[in-house]
Structure formats: structure tokens, C-alpha cells
Amino acid sequence: MSFEEDDGQSGYVSELLEGGYLQGPEIGAANAFIKDEELSQAQQNVFDNFVLRKHDPGACKRCRNGIDWPEKYEAKHNGGFCGRCANVIHKADQDD
Ligand SMILES: [Zn+2]
After folding, report:
1. What is the pLDDT of residue 96?
2. From ligand 1's centre to the CA of 12, what distance in Å?
3. How far is the CA of 72 from the centre of ligand 1 (A)?
4. Of 5, 41, 48, 69, which is most buried by a Cβ count within 10 Å?
């Protein structure tokens, strides 16, 4: 994985790290990924199964579409909504 083909995934992983979501081996695997280092098989397993899967907010709870990497961290804090739905909901709240 190089930063040329980065789609926001490394930014998301950095946010998980800085937000204190990761622990133990997850931190090492996340750091290696962010620094574009070669992950060992064990690190890759931790990265795929814990860093990514365990912390993934899943599909948007409103429109059911997948949430892009740059919006995932936000989704973890807004109840699991993609950026567009979060905007719509936020606007609706203000109208009340
Ligand atoms: Zn949505």
C-alpha cells in the first residue's frame, strides 16, 4: 500500500490511533501501516481483523450505503451515518 493509492484509509487509521481506540498489538500494526512499513503476517491479521473490522462503523444506518474511509471516523461519533446523511439529520434537527 502506497500513499499514492491512498483513499483516506491511512487517515482513518491515524484518527483511530489518536482517538485512543486502539490497544496492544493494534497500535503496532496501525503504526506500521501508517508509516507504510511492511506488516508481518501477524500484524496484517491484527490490522484486518481488529484495527479495521472491529472498529468499522459498518454501512450507513440511514441510507444503507457503505461509508467511505474519510467519513468512517466521523460516523463512529454520529451514530453510524455517512457524511451526507449526517448533514441531512443535522439540518432537520436545526429546523425543529
Ligand atoms: Zn447515509
Report:
1. 64
2. 18
3. 11
4. 69
